[in-house]
Design goal:
Length: about 180
């Protein structure tokens, strides 16, 4: 039987996901790659045909604007990293996580991550949620109980979906001018 806390985390995640599905309707590649400012982080094909994300450490100031493609890559990056640390054998390096090359494939990839995350949570009980063993090595949330990281996943997805929605509105407004 699933923990009531897991049910709560999943319901919250499902709300954020419904908003993502709303913003993903009719999302196309042009919209994903549209740069909203003269200096924007995007996803770009490299010489090997992989779509890599712009990234700089430390971040420049001010931080560049981002594209929908970059935001979907970013969600893939943090969710893959979190999923693999909490339920796998450790995450791949950031550079190994690439954008799948289209809006449709990006949304499908995020749906796959959501299913995997919820499947991982479904196997847990309250003791697992209170444990910090699954968050060991996680670049964000190390030492936190897994339930805190699970709550963060929903909040982070909500924030990223809001960014996608805003970028969609800006793209549509600019295209109509």
């Amino acid at each position: 039987m699933s923990s009531p806390r897991i049910s709560l985390v999943n319901r919250q995640l499902d709300i954020a996901w419904a908003l993502l599905e709303h913003h993903a309707q009719d999302l196309d590649d042009a919209m994903c790659l549209w740069e909203p400012a003269p200096v924007s982080w995007n996803v770009r094909p490299d010489g090997q045909g992989r779509w890599v994300a712009d990234w700089q450490v430390p971040e420049p100031q001010p931080v560049p604007a981002v594209t929908i493609g970059w935001v979907t890559w970013h969600v893939d990056y943090w969710w893959t990293t979190t999923l693999e640390h909490c339920f796998g054998s450790g995450a791949p390096a950031r550079e190994e996580i690439v954008w799948p090359g289209s809006a449709e494939a990006a949304i499908a990839r995020l749906a796959e991550l959501k299913r995997s995350w919820q499947a991982g949570l479904a196997r847990l009980d309250d003791a697992d949620l209170d444990s910090t063993s699954r968050t060991a090595g996680l670049p964000w949330g190390e030492g936190l109980p897994l339930v805190d990281v699970a709550g963060w996943v929903g909040v982070e997805l909500t924030k990223n979906v809001a960014e996608i929605g805003l970028l969609r509105h800006l793209y549509t407004w600019n295209a109509a001018r």
